[in-house]
Design brief:
With about 625 residues, this protein is α/β, with parallel strands linked by helices. The protein has 22 helices and 13 strands. The longest helix is centred in the C-terminal third of the chain and has 75 residues.
C-alpha cells in the first residue's frame, strides 16, 4: 500500500518543473536557477540533478516506451517520473522517499535495469565533455597578471598552438589537471580541463574572471567595435556579452544595454556594477519600443534574442511544439528588422542564438535581409575568422546560409550556438546618415520657429491684456461720468444746460477744423500747380536746348510739350478726384456724427422740457396747497 499522505521531496518537484520549462519553452537551466524563490535550495544539487536528467532524456524515453509506464500509470507526472528515473539509474542509484511517485518508479526498477542491460550498446554514451572556459575581465585584471596568479597556485600555462584550428581542438582535449591555455580566437579567454571548479576561486568572487562559454564570446569578437564607438546590446541580461563589450572597448565610448524584464534588469545592473563596466548605460525598456530618433548615435548592434535554447544542453530538445517555435521566430524577425531600420548610423549587426534549429537562424536571416528596406549584406564568417572554423549554416538557404556560423558541442567543444554578421551597404549608410542629419536640422529649425512663435504670442498676449485693462479703465470712467451726469441732472438742472453748451462748443471746434482742412487742401492744390508749372518750364528748356543742338524741330518740341502737359494735367485730375472722394467720405461720417449728436441734444432738450413741466406742476401744486392752508 502507498502512503498518500507522504509528499514528494521538494527538490525533485523543483527539478521536474525546471526540466519541463527547458524542454517545452526553451532557455538555460542556469538562468532558471537565478529565481529568488530558489535561494533556499542548494542550487548545485538541483543543477546536477537537472543536467543528469537532460543528458539521459532520450534513453529514459526509450525505457518508458518499452515498459509502457506512462500508459499504465496515468496519474504519474511524466516530467517528475523522468527526474526520479534519472536519479535511480544514473544518479544516486536510489530514491530516499516513500511518496507514491517514488514507490511507483521503484516498482518498475527491475524492468528498467533489464532493458538497460539488454540494450547497453544502443544506449547513448556519455556526452562530450566540454572544457572550462574563463574570460579575464580586463576592466579589473590584465591577462598577464591572471596568468601569473594561476601559476602561483600551481597551474601550468601551455602556450596556444600556432597551427590549424583542428590542432587547437586536439590541444585542449589533451589538457590534464592543472593545465590551462589561451583560446585560439578570443585572446582574453583561457581554457581549463573539463570539471575544473572555479566557483569558489578568489578571482571569480572578485569578478576579475568570468565563467563564460567560448561560443558566446565569439559574438563580441566578431562585432569588433572600435574603441570610443557607440554600441547597443538589445537583449542584454544577464550581462555576459555586455561586460565583455565594455572590456573590449577598454571602457571608452558608450554601450546601451536594454532589458525588459524587471528581475533580469536588476541582475544586469548588478553585474555591470560589479565588473567595473563604466561605459555601460542600462535601460529598463523593451528594445522594440526604442524608435528612430531615440538612439541615432548607435554604430554597432548586438542582438541575442529569446530562443528555444536547443544548443545549451544535449538531447533535451529533440522536439519543440510548432506553435512555440513559430512565436519565437516571429519575435526574432521583429527584433532583427527593428535593428536594421531604426538606427540610421548602425553599420554592423551581430545576430546570435543558443539554438541549433535553422528556423530560428538561417531562415530568420534570409527572410529579414531580403525584405528589409535598408540594404544589409551577410558577411562570410569564414573569411572574418581567416578560414579557421569548421561548422557553417545550411546551403538550403543559399549563400546567406553558408556565410553564417554554427558552434557545435561535439566538434567545437562549446555550447550549441549560431551567429551571423551583417554589414550595411556604404551608400545606404551615407544616405541614412544624411537623412538623420537633415531631420535633426529640421527639428532644430522647428524648435527655433516654435520659440519665436511663442515669443510673438506672448507679446500679443501682453498687448491684448494691456488693451483690455485700458478698455476696462475707460468703461469705469465712462460709467462714473454717466453717474455724475445723472446725479448732476437730479441735483441741479442748470448743469444740463452747461453740458449742452460744451457740446455746442465742441461742434464749433470741429467745424473750424473742417474749414482749416479745406484751406490746407487748396494750398496743397496750388503748390501742386506750381510744381507742374516748374516741371513744364524745365522740359521746355531742355527741348529748346535740344533744338539748338539739332538745328530745328520746333514742331516736335511743341508736340512733346503738349504731351507732357496733358499727362501732368491727367495726373493732377486723378489726385484731385481721389482727395475729393476721401473728403466726401470724411464729410459723410462727420455729418452722421453731427446728426446723431443733434438727435441726442433734441432728446436731452425734450427731457429737460419734461423736467421743467414736471417741476412747474409741482410748484403750482405747492402754491395751491399753500393757498388752501
Amino acid at each position: 500500500m502507498f502512503e498518500h499522505s507522504v509528499k514528494v521531496p521538494r527538490h525533485y518537484k523543483v527539478a521536474a518543473n525546471i526540466f519541463k520549462k527547458v524542454s517545452t519553452e526553451g532557455g538555460s537551466v542556469k538562468s532558471l536557477l537565478y529565481d529568488n524563490k530558489l535561494k533556499h535550495f542548494r542550487t548545485n544539487v538541483l543543477y546536477a540533478l537537472i543536467t543528469e536528467t537532460i543528458k539521459h532524456a532520450a534513453d529514459i524515453d526509450k525505457i518508458f516506451e518499452n515498459c509502457s509506464i506512462l500508459e499504465k500509470e496515468t496519474r504519474l507526472d511524466p516530467w517528475l517520473a523522468k527526474v526520479l528515473t534519472a536519479e535511480l539509474l544514473f544518479g544516486k542509484k536510489s530514491l530516499p522517499g516513500k511518496s507514491k511517485p517514488e514507490q511507483t518508479i521503484l516498482s518498475y526498477k527491475d524492468q528498467f535495469q533489464t532493458y538497460t542491460s539488454d540494450h547497453q550498446d544502443d544506449m547513448k554514451t556519455e556526452a562530450t565533455r566540454r572544457p572550462r572556459y574563463v574570460r579575464i575581465n580586463t576592466n579589473l585584471l590584465t591577462t598577464s597578471d591572471a596568468i601569473r596568479a594561476f601559476q602561483d597556485e600551481g597551474y601550468r600555462f601551455i602556450r596556444c598552438t600556432s597551427g590549424s584550428y583542428d590542432d587547437y581542438l586536439q590541444q585542449i582535449q589533451g589538457l590534464t589537471e592543472y593545465d590551462f591555455t589561451q583560446d585560439y580566437h578570443v585572446k582574453t579567454m583561457f581554457v581549463f580541463p573539463p570539471g575544473t571548479k572555479l566557483h569558489e576561486h578568489e578571482l571569480y568572487l572578485e569578478n576579475k574572471i568570468i565563467l563564460q562559454d567560448k561560443a558566446t564570446a565569439l559574438a563580441v569578437h566578431l562585432l569588433a567595435p572600435q574603441t570610443g564607438s557607440v554600441v547597443f546590446d538589445m537583449c542584454a541580461a544577464p550581462g555576459m556579452k555586455t561586460t565583455q563589450l565594455a572590456a573590449y572597448m577598454r571602457n571608452e565610448g558608450k554601450i546601451y544595454a536594454s532589458e525588459r524584464n524587471e528581475k533580469r534588469y536588476q541582475t544586469l545592473c548588478d553585474f555591470v556594477e560589479r565588473t567595473g563596466s563604466k561605459c555601460v548605460e542600462t535601460m529598463h525598456k523593451d528594445s522594440l519600443e526604442i524608435k528612430r530618433g531615440d538612439l541615432d548615435d548607435v554604430e554597432y548592434i548586438l542582438l541575442d534574442p529569446s530562443c528555444s535554447g536547443s544548443g545549451m544542453e544535449l538531447c533535451v530538445h529533440n522536439y519543440i511544439e510548432a506553435t512555440r517555435l513559430a512565436k519565437l521566430t516571429s519575435l526574432q524577425e521583429k527584433f532583427l528588422k527593428h535593428a536594421m531600420n531604426a538606427f540610421p548610423k548602425a553599420k554592423r549587426i551581430v545576430y546570435s542564438t543558443c539554438s541549433l534549429f535553422p528556423e530560428e537562424n538561417e531562415r530568420v536571416i534570409t527572410n529579414v535581409v531580403k525584405t528589409s528596406r535598408a540594404k544589409w549584406r551577410v558577411q562570410d564568417v569564414n573569411e572574418l575568422l581567416k578560414g579557421k572554423w569548421n561548422n557553417f549554416g545550411s546551403a538550403m538557404y543559399g549563400s546567406m546560409g553558408t556565410r553564417c556560423l554554427y558552434a557545435k558541442p561535439e566538434t567545437d567543444l562549446t555550447t550549441g550556438f549560431f551567429l551571423a554578421v551583417l554589414d550595411r551597404d556604404e551608400k545606404d549608410l551615407e544616405k541614412s546618415m544624411r537623412h538623420a542629419n537633415n531631420v535633426n536640422h529640421v527639428d532644430d529649425v522647428q524648435d527655433g520657429t516654435i520659440e519665436e512663435n511663442n515669443t510673438k504670442k506672448n507679446k500679443k498676449k501682453r498687448k491684448y491684456e494691456e488693451i483690455t485693462e485700458t478698455a476696462d479703465d475707460l468703461e469705469k470712467i465712462d460709467e462714473e461720468c454717466k453717474e455724475n451726469n445723472n446725479n448732476a441732472g437730479k441735483e441741479d438742472r442748470d448743469s444740463n444746460y452747461s453740458y449742452l453748451e460744451n457740446s455746442q462748443e465742441k461742434e464749433n471746434i470741429k467745424k473750424k477744423k473742417k474749414k482749416n482742412k479745406h484751406k490746407h487742401q487748396e494750398i496743397s492744390d496750388n503748390n501742386s500747380d506750381k510744381v507742374v508749372k516748374n516741371k513744364k518750364n524745365k522740359i521746355e528748356k531742355l527741348n529748346d536746348d535740344k533744338v539748338v543742338e539739332d538745328g530745328g524741330g520746333n514742331e516736335n518740341r511743341d508736340y512733346n510739350v503738349s504731351n507732357v502737359e496733358n499727362s501732368l494735367e491727367s495726373e493732377i485730375i486723378k489726385k484731385k478726384k481721389k482727395k475729393r472722394k476721401q473728403q466726401e467720405s470724411v464729410d459723410y461720417f462727420e455729418e452722421n456724427d453731427v446728426r446723431n449728436k443733434k438727435k441726442k441734444n433734441e432728446g436731452i432738450n425734450e427731457t429737460i422740457g419734461n423736467l421743467n413741466i414736471i417741476n412747474g406742476e409741482k410748484e403750482r401744486k405747492r402754491k395751491k396747497d399753500f393757498d388752501n392752508v
